[in-house]
Amino acid sequence: MSVSGALPTPRALLSILLMALLGLGALLGLGRLARSARLQRADFVFNNGSDVSSLDPAAVTGTPEGRLLRAISEGLVIRDPRSLEPMGGAAHSWERSEDGLVWTFHLREDARWTNGDPVEAADFVFSFERLLDPATAAPYAYQLYPVVGARAYNTEVDEAGRPAHDFADTVGIRKLAPLELEIRLEASTPYFLDLLAFHALLPVNRRALEEARSRWGASWEQEWLRPENIVTNGAFRVLERRLGDRIRLVRNRDYWDADSVALESIDVLAIENQATMLNLYLTGEVDWIERLAPSLVPRLREREDYHAEPYLGAYFYRFNVTRAPFGDVRIRRALALAVDRRAICDLVLKGGQGVSWGLVPPGFDGYAYPRMAHTERGGEEAMDEEQALAADCEEARALIAEAGFGPEGEPFPPIELHYNNAESHREIALVVAERWQRELGIEVLLLNQEWKLYLGTQRNLGYDISRSSWIGDYPDPNTFLDVFKTDGENNRTGWGNADYDRLIEAAAAEPDLERRLEVLAEAEGILLEELPILPIYSYVTQNLVHPRLGGFWGNLQDEHPPRFFYWMDDEELARSRAGL
Amino acid sequence: MARFLLRRLAWFAITLWVVMSLSFALMRAVPGGPFDGERRLSAAIERNVAQRYHLDWPLWRQYLQYTGPLNLDEGRAGFLGGNGTRRFGGLLTGDLGPSFKHRDYTVNQIIAESLPISMALGIAAMAWALALGLGAGVLSAVRRGGKIDVGVRLIATLGIAVPNFVVASLLILVFSFGAGLLPVAGWGSARHLVLPALALGAPFAAHIARLARTGMLEVLSQDHIRTARAKGLPERIVVLRHALRGGVLPVVSYLGPAAAGILTGSLVIERIFAIPGTGTHFVNSALGRDYTLAMGVTLLYTALVYTLNTAVDVIYRLLDPRIELGGEGR
How far apart are CA A226 and CA A579, in angstroms? Predict the structure, then answer.
């Protein structure tokens, strides 16, 4: 080793060279990356909450996927962003037969795919057949089950694993003319148009799919959805897709209604961290965020850009009725009575969520909304919250004693309250557990599990009482009540009631809409007498939206299609502010 | 040297295989599957999904499919009863398989897209951690007991004790909300790199400063330094040319673990700054039971840590020939 320092040895030279090379490589890499990553801010930027798992409508289930897919593709029907009433999409009009079983859709002549092909009835026949094909393994294939023969085609296979039935012969979907599509239903389904607007039922382009298959072989499934290859028919096209970062959409000039689309480009971000997205919103990098942290909501609520609207979601606990003592309805009712719902809404959630005494959340006109029996609050004669809760707890103690527990009976066994990892679930569980302990003398153990473990525990009925929620797929009480049919996949309580099942089925077959809602309410009445669930609260939406953004309206399903968005000028902004 | 590298290569293969088998077993042993969601699917649809992704196969067969090189699905070779369209596949052919969650991507594509981003972040963090850490450490050793020394030691202790997400929040508060100089999060320009690199590198800079100081102090008290000083060399030459070379050895040996730590430890920083790197996939794939992606990233990290440690051993040897590599010539 050189000590004199005159000249470095070859070895030292080599190490210096290595370091220098590494440094140079790093700098070059950084520079290249920074250049390639540069992208001007889009017209409009919103956070979608996570990466979309796929751009294939048949492959996806989640809300972020739905939001993105509805921006780039268009189904037969779309929905009004204010009222959610069905409006013309790829079909400009439709007819329904007297009995409500046969629907005929008339497609637009000027609708085009991004590859120039016209959007035709055959595209929808192909897409629906693909969705139902067992080989596609579409999780949301059941959205088409109201169609004649669809369930059998999707679920019955021969020995080779191919569908046991012929699609054209057995499934009620067919092309009458190039622009005319007929769909036949098993039963009149009042929400069928809402289903058609659902993202699983968006069309895919047959030519693009088949070309991809022959061109890329085994990897076609990744290739055909790349931005440079994907073919869609919606208001926006995919320009660029960066995993974990954003999807850049641009206005589709070939869209039939392109003139009414105001935004030139949209960035759809995939930020999961709540603090990060709020930071980006507050610094003007993002124009719309949702899913706000409960701890921040009280401060954000005062802002003009905060939007809270009733949302089609219910938060409740499930009882495992196969486990003692929850098989006893008196115990379930006692526990459901002794819950301080007001404290949960006002002190824990603070976002304007509504106290709930039933399963179906508010928002359906003409629905009777049965409620579980409890002491009335508010009003002229009624007690205030505290007195009413005390009366409910009194009744709860009586019910527990009647069931043979308490001071004069057996000691009540400790119960396990099961929930998944999230701050607000824990806080709600604490409020509930504290009341049960204090008022009913029941020992409550909190059991917190990571998401997938939690799902497994709930499915296998490995719990006593488990936190749950349900978000409606379509604006109809059936989307909630259907869940608790005996042995339904999502029942997960072990509860079943033959009368309840009969009513749900009767409602599905009932052509008279008013009568149908009555039947559904009757079913919910049974559910709330039997209480396999413990209702807690109904959801509200939480959106922070740039004050200048026009075309953004609150609605029951928290759906905000960007094709209706535009930026307001000063005058309109002033008017909209005055209107508030 | 060649023998050393060959030996390392053999161990590399064995390590990868053990890690792969262990992570395969662990992923499958954890309850819950990649397609479990809030809404349970009907038994028939669940069966369709399982068939499509071969989750209905016995585990040994799924394992062999994952390792390759023979493909076992419908496209397998004719002598195995398949149609022969895709005879080979799996890890041994360099194919980490399709991701379960990101269905439009293969694991190879996900890594190719996210790793350069994590690397850029890691290199930037490492560069400033080294520059600042070494400078502060050497200065602190030379000015032992002075104000600079006390200051450096205090800040270094703080830097090690304070977790990087706290540093990140402070940086955002000061530079984004306070001064309005840098973006709070996101990815797209060199400006987006500054805060995350600072936050990520901070604890490492502190550690390097302490190591450099200790190393320098030890060397500065040795005979050859006294000789150099006695010869009348200027202090600058003594420190930079004679002491530094020995003094940085502890820092060099720390570089391997540090580089690995920066790469695998970037996930918190990636989340706070919304950086689309590999760290996020590491956590999300495990939580989402994305079997192939979780294993792919685990294998990637194994390979990186192993390679970095080997590289450090080699550099160490180049800096100080007295060090023997892996018992060579023992």
Answer: 44
Select from A449, A472, A471 the least CA-distant residue to A460.
A449
d(CA B139, CA A125): 75
Tens digit of each residue's pLDDT (9 = 90 or more) over A101-139: 999 999 999 999 999 999 999 999 999 999 999 888 888
Percent of chain A with pLDDT over 90: 72
Domains and CATH numbers, chain B: 107-319 (1.10.3720.10)
Residues of A in contact with B185 (CB under 8 A): 271, 276, 279-280, 285
Helix (H, G, I), strand (E, B) or coil at B94: coil
Query: Is the previous residue joined to B69 through a cis bond, with omega within 30 degrees of 0?
Result: yes
Query: Which of A23, A54, A270 has the CB atom closest to B104's CB atom?
Result: A54
Q: Is A440 helix (H, G, I), strand (E, B) or coil?
A: helix
For residues A74, A80, A82 and A85, what is the CA-based torsion angle, rounded to 10 degrees?
A: -130
The reported pTM is: 0.87
- pLDDT above 70 covers what percent of chain A? 92
Share of chain B above pLDDT 70, in %: 96
Closest C-alpha among B276, B280, B292, B296 to residue B101: B292
Taking contacts as CB-CB distances below 8 angstroms, the residues of chain B near A226 are 104
Three-class SS state of A376: coil
Cβ(B306)–Cβ(B112) below 8 Å:
no
Q: Which residues of chain A have pLDDT under 50?
A: 1-7
Q: How close does chain A come to B133, measured CA to CA in Å?
A: 17
CA distance B39 to chain A (A): 6
Q: What is the ipTM of this complex?
A: 0.86
Say which residue the tokens 């797929």 belong to. A473
- Separation between Cα atoms, residue A95 and residue A304, nearest integer Å: 42
Q: In the A/B pair of chains, how many CB contacts fall below 8 A?
A: 186
